[in-house]
Amino acid sequence: MKPNRNPLPVRMWNRHNSWNEAETAWDQRARKLRNSFPLKGIRHWRTLPGIRPSTRKNLRWKALRYLLENDENKVMSYFWCKPLLHIGKMIRSYWSSRSYTRDNDFFLYGFSSAEAFTRRIEHADTFLIIGFSYCHKPFECPSGRFTDDCAHDDENPVCGQCFIGKCVHAMPEKRCRPVFITTVHYIAEKIIEAIHAHPNKEVVFLITACELTLEMFGDWGNSIALRGIGVRLDGQICNTMKAFEASERGIKPGLAVVLPKTQQRMLDAIAVRRHHKTAS
Ligand code: SF4
Fold it and tell me: Burial, 233: exposed, middle or buried (Cβ in 10 Å; 0-12, 13-18, 19+)?
């Protein structure tokens, strides 16, 4: 896999005097682009169950097996660096019926509420990873879908309509990093890298993913005391193990989406971070 080449262009929000001014300019441009350069969307919307009932059976065991079979010893080596602590936290997570607290499309890990998360990211001693699953990149994405790249190109009519592009242009450069997620192991490795790179900060995450992924890997995040929010994707999601495993190899013919209300909640969290006095 190619090394991450981000961050790239000057972020559009930096060229405006306020959040509202920047967002209005972005939205007006996106509306114009939708008329002149319409993107392929979801042609036949069907509401799918987040996880098929047969897939839900023994899901924790399936998650464990998948993680072990596909790890190149990067995630597990971090787990084994403090075995007693991590095993203890893992048992505690398994003991609970769920590894998260759900608030609509927000799956909260280690936080009691979305407000507790936003209060935490206001603090200068946190490093925020904002991750986007490749499954909701537009089909026309100039960086390609199954890649860890995002050009968020100001001049590109696809980027100008893309929710991921909007978030990247809105986020501050300091103590905040966008990650474009190809696989479960990829995002785990990026978070572990950030933990090593920022030993004096708490690394927290805000990442988009299908409900199946959020359900499967929550225990593992809890075991290494990772805290953050998983944002549930809708649309053409993976809700079986077969679809999940294919998507991990880049086979994802459908388009997932962050629902409009949930987009707003993500942007609200980014705005909180951006307005922090040490954010740029
Ligand atoms: S902003 Fe969207 S369309 Fe543009 S490169 Fe990034 S993911 Fe692709």
Answer: buried
Q: What pLDDT, in 10s, does the model give residues 46-61?
A: 888 999 999 999 999 9
Regarding the beta carbon of 212 and ligand 1, being less than 6 Å apart is answered no
Q: With a 6 A CB cut-off, is 226 part of the ligand 1 pocket?
A: no
CA distance 222 to 91: 10
Share of the chain residues as helix, strand and coil, in percent rounded to the nearest 5: 45, 15, 40
Backbone dihedral region for residue 225 (phi beyond 0: left; psi -120 to 50: alpha; all else: beta) = left
Give the number of other CB atoms < 10 A from CB of residue 48: 16
Contacts of 272 (CB under 8 A, 6+ apart): 118, 121, 122
Whole-number Å distance, alpha carbon 131 to ligand 1 midpoint, is 13
pLDDT recorded at residue 220? 92
Rounded distance, CA 92 to CA 172, Å? 35
CA angle 113, 124, 26 (to 5 degrees): 75
Q: Could you please report the per-residue DSSP string of 64-99?
A: HHHHHHH--SHHHHHHTTSHHHHHHHHHHHHHSS-S
CA distances from 247 to 52, 145, 236 (A): 16, 11, 12
**Using one digit for the tens of pLDDT, what is the confidence trace for 160-195?**
999 999 999 999 999 999 999 999 999 999 999 999
Q: Which residue puts its alpha carbon closest to atom 8 of ligand 1?
A: 141
Among the listed residues 126, 232, 132, the one whose alpha carbon sits nearest the alpha carbon of residue 179: 132
